[in-house]
Amino acid sequence: MSLMDSILAGLSLVGNFEAFFALFAGVAIGTIAGAIPGMSATMAVALTLPFTFSMQPIIAILLLLGVYKGGIFGGSIPAILIKTPGTPASSATVLDGYPLAEKGQAGKALGMALWASCTADLISNLALILFAGWLASFALNFGPPEFFTLILFSLTIIAGVSGASLLRGALSAMLGLLLATVGLDLVYGTNRFTFGDPSMMGGLNFIAVLIGLFAIPEVLAMVWDPKPHKGQTRSLGDNKVTFGEYKRCFKSIVRGSFIGVFLGSIPGIGAAPSAFLSYSEARRKSPNRDNFGKGELEGVAASEAGNNGVAGATLIPLLALGVPGDVITAIIIGAFMVHGLQPGPMMFILNVDIIYGLFIGLIVSSVFLFFIGSVAIRGFKYVADIPRGVLFPGVLVLCVYGVFAVNNNIFDVGVMFVMGWVGFVMLRNDIPAAPFLIAFILGPLLEDNFRQAMLMSGSSPTILFRGPITWFFWGLTVLTVIAIIRAGIRATRTLKRRA
Amino acid sequence: MKFAKFSAVSAMVIGLATAASAADYPERPINMVIPYGAGGATDISARTIAEPLGKAVGQSLIMANVTGAGGATGSVAVKNAKSDGYTMLFARVGSHSVNPAMKATLPYTLDDFRFVTVYEINPFACAVEANSDINSMDDLIAKVAEGGVSYSSSGVGSGLHLAGAMVLDEFGVEDPLNAATHIPQKGGGAAVTAVLNGTATFLCTNSSALASFVANGQMKPLMVTTKEPVVGFDAPTAADLGKPALHQLVGWTGIAGPADISDEVAGKWGEWMAAAAGDEEFVSSMEARGSIIDVMSPEDANAFIQEQYTTFRALVDKLGMRIEG
């Protein structure tokens, strides 16, 4: 079948009102769910799944993909407006989005988040369509040793998001690494730091830690000292992103999109690390480097490009190999199976109409995302006008509800509140929360892959240097560490000169 | 423990004891706990049967995924729930025969549950990457003797972990724990990926998890553990290979309640399941995923699981695989 035939076959499958409506509804559901703190994109997809069982396969999958994409973007709305990432992937957006909102430029930040998300989404979808086969076979070169070096390199992000003091950032990261060890040991299956409590056996729930660390400290801070916040509202500010601003950030957006595509096509990493990596790369390269973390539009653009760049690319291992790349695609692969579809190389031959139908749907979804996103920004902007005395109790209720709903487990709510106090103490002492989060996500990946590599080689460390991919990441890591040390020395020198 | 009880109570949305007699059961919706994540094999199986089952029950079934610790978190929630039949669990081979056999520190035992049915049997299959030079179980065993063979699993103490060791043991490999390296992964998807990208040599897992990879020509099946051949798997059965002991190695999904649910409740579930499993749509969609629908009565289900547990436990003790501490 020629390409044209395939496209026509796909079009005949999705070229109807039902398919586009499912996609549209999916993006809308996802955006709203993502915008509610505690309702992550993963949860939204999981909740939608049972409803798709009775639908036609293509419509079911388009609906779920819409929810996924909408959810990843929607998460940035509360991240910017109330410092609470709606979904883990938008944690990096908080770093510059919230300071922008504080300055009364929430509208600009939201607008940039939307532009960056849609651009990255489009790039990611094109990468899927054009390079799926190639990227998938590349991703299969990633065994534990390659993963280990990639994660090791990613840990250097910590330096990029530590803010003024690298020492404080490192402290925060160490705390994150420590808490990430709670749960069952990967290789021996023994309990680690569970204190005999079955609820701790699964480790600390990621969403609970995330919400606890970002949202609860703000609420506590307000309760602690309510006066300065009394009746305070912020203006949404200038609603539009100018073309000049978009152009200025374009490089970071494209870079972020490619980081997203790259990390998305490798099974097992997910959107949050990609957003952080894109953010720290943008910061390193940007002429406005010093403004990052204080409300830099480019920071928002880079993080949103990083997380939406993953969305299309995670379908690469799913469609080309039949392997789910992250939690969300693991749910979507369930939908494929329910409908008797077997994702993998044969699907490109047996179900070529579905594959091309999906491609068409994905491209259209970027457009839908843009329109629904614009409407959502307009709708949610009133959140900025609500006095904090009313807003924060509402946020607290949503957080408790959302964290409970992740796992139907009250223990997670307890984790959220404990982490809230930890986050509050960190906030008071100017210890940044982002390194904690990165370490909490990457720590287990680093450990697991290291130990798997050691099992593979019979404990010989030379396996960590096998092949060009490991050498590449070792090289990057060394270069980055040298750059961080040099920047540190330079900073101390300037301080001394001033003194 | 306090939290666990709390969670059990609140998660199940159980009202106060209404002292309803068994004749009225069920007079309100029943909470069904799925101890694994959305989109996984257990979740799909549970949600597929929920449709015909809900009709048979005449009340709505509230499905909730309570995940974590290889199914332990959700299982504990049901163990601690009120045993009035309004909180039931979708139990699985991993959570209720492999885990209890392997983990000394598991916060529950088989005695904490009463099974009302096992409705789905899923054969196990062993497979290698398609381009591997291993073409049969004999090749694999010969390779093990040479050394350097490894197998992946979805985690320590999972069904896949036990299956790998059990198969090697049955085929006469001495000291299978050291002859082949076990490389645990996080989850079944990652376990398959590990074989695809060459991290591990082979794996033994549910045929439904392998079906798409076999159909796509990415993996080569070496054996299925059932008596009858499995559709789509061009591989000998355990019976063909003269290893009938491996017939015990099958996955299953069942429904259980806390240990002291009444006979009336168990009996009603027996009737409902018999009605639900007759649903044609349910049967055809489950069979399309490689499962065998075989509804067991409460008594048969308990006996089946006990037997499997005993087999697994004996193997675990023989090989010294039990996880302490």
UniProtKB/TrEMBL annotation, chain A:
The keyword Transmembrane applies. Keywords: Membrane, Transmembrane, Transmembrane helix. Residues 21-437 form the DUF112 domain. The chain crosses the membrane at residues 20-47, 147-167, 173-191, 203-224, 258-279, 318-342, 354-377, 389-404, 471-489. It holds the Pfam family TctA. InterPro entries: DUF112_TM. PANTHER family: TRICARBOXYLIC TRANSPORT PROTEIN. This is Putative tricarboxylic transport membrane protein.
UniProtKB/TrEMBL annotation, chain B:
Gene3D superfamilies: Bordetella uptake gene, domain 1, Periplasmic binding protein-like II. It holds the Pfam family TctC. It comes from the Bacteria. SUPFAM superfamilies: Periplasmic binding protein-like II (SSF53850). Keywords: Receptor, Signal. InterPro entries: BUG (IPR005064), Bug_dom1 (IPR042100). Residues 1-22 form the signal peptide. Belongs to the UPF0065 (bug) family. This is Tripartite-type tricarboxylate transporter receptor subunit TctC. It comes from Litoreibacter meonggei.
